Amino acid sequence: MEQNLENQQRLKAIIETAIDGIITIDAKGIIETVNPAAARIFGYQPEEMIGNNVKMLMPEPDHSQHDQYIENYHRTHVGKIIGIGREVIGLKKDGTKFPFLLSISEVKLKDKQIFTGIVHDISTLKRAEDALRESENKINSIIQAAVDGIITIDSYGIMEMVNPSAAKLFGYEIDELLGKSINMLMPEPDKSRHDGYIHNYETTGRERIIGIGREVTGLKKDGTIFPFFLSVSEVKTQGKRIYTGFVHDITQQKLNEERLRRYAAELERSNLELQDFAYVSSHDLQEPLRKIQAFGDRLQSKEKENLSEQGKDYVDRMLNAASRMQNLINDLLSFSRLTTQSKPFVPTNLNQVLSEVLSDLEITIEQTHAEIIRSPLPTIEAEPTQMRQLFQNLISNAIKFRKENENPVINIYAKHHQKKAHLTATPGDEVTEIYIEDNGIGFDEKYLDRIFNIFQRLEGQKYEGSGIGLAICRKIAIRHGGDITANSQPGVGTRFIITLALKQPKQEQDPAL
Length: 513
Hints:
The structure is a single chain. By secondary structure, this protein is of the alpha+beta class. The chain contains 15 helices and 17 strands. The strands form four sheets. A five-stranded antiparallel beta sheet has the order 2-1-5-4-3. Strands 7-6-10-9-8 form a five-stranded antiparallel beta sheet. The longest helix is centred in the middle third of the chain and has 52 residues, at 251-302. The N and C termini lie far apart (108 Å). Residues 84-134, 212-262 form the PAC domain. It is an enzyme of class 2 (transferase). Residues 7-60, 135-188 form the PAS domain. It comes from Adhaeribacter terreus.
């Protein structure tokens, strides 16, 4: 008797302290006992549940169907859940629905039949499963929508996953690749060597590409071989190795590199030709020109009395033509030396450069009564001498092409410009725009492209010059990571806009460039 009492107390203690809910109902579905865990799970006090039909813990449609289910079971002894267990939905006191795992056992006593239900709340588990499923869906969406190709293979090199971009890149449908060896996407000799490479890696641990990445070649379905950048990562999961390859097509990049290489070679050849031309200009062309000038001077000084008036006029014209040719040659040499004799870029205070230029032009400014309006200019990485050439050419032009009955007014100012709001690190991302405005004769903007070309002169012989000054300005601006343009109207004036990068790439600081 005492033993039975002790067993009952032990069993009661187990039920009362159980983590899972335990509920017993009679043959009509009326709740007879509820342990604390079950009451807590459903949000009730035990006394609120005992004596009520168990369907109070069920949402629709189970709530309405439960009595019929018990009746059918009594009649047929065929149960949908008794002795089996399954996942169901419960209804808490506050109306919240939640998932739980329910297992029911039937007990037949001498005078009655009872059913015991074990309630295991799986809300946390389901939330974790949903979160994992959502995470997997996100990852899968990213993989499926990725621009680059993504392929996973097993340790035998068999493709287990191929995203649409990878299939498209190699010219296949996805189902043509799954289950096949990855070496079908490789030209020789990689195709024959790949299986051996995987074997060597798994036996020695020495990798040639895993975790590193490199440029390789791929084989498309149509036989085309193309370059791509491949990075491979290794994952060990569930006792096996999986390798994921990220494929970035670099066909266009390689074509651009080849075009750039050929362009650089052509540019180098062109520069050499320009240097040769400069040598010829400075030596071979100037030597006969000096003789023309020398003998012309002798005619003018020693034989002047023996020449007729027409002869004197011919000599004067010849010497003037020779002088103009000398100026053209010198300007052409200056243009060619911008690159061949350029110096490294250094921090250059444009305010100081402008002050020096205005000092050099002081007499011209006074003679023409020019008014110079200047605002602060920035410090940039530049070649100071070329900045002086730039300012001197443009300011001299503004004074030269003034209106006859109006004093020239020249306004010089700068604006900072950032090409993209979030980019400042790369040379060329930030530039300064230098504005040089005048109230001179101006020009028709349909000639805008012409004025920066070598030897182009819109005003013919009316104004002195070789027509090379603006070409020099443009070459200087381009060398400093920018360009030059202008806005103008005839009779109104001209505004030149010079764009210069604040910083220059380090490799361009080589004087040989």
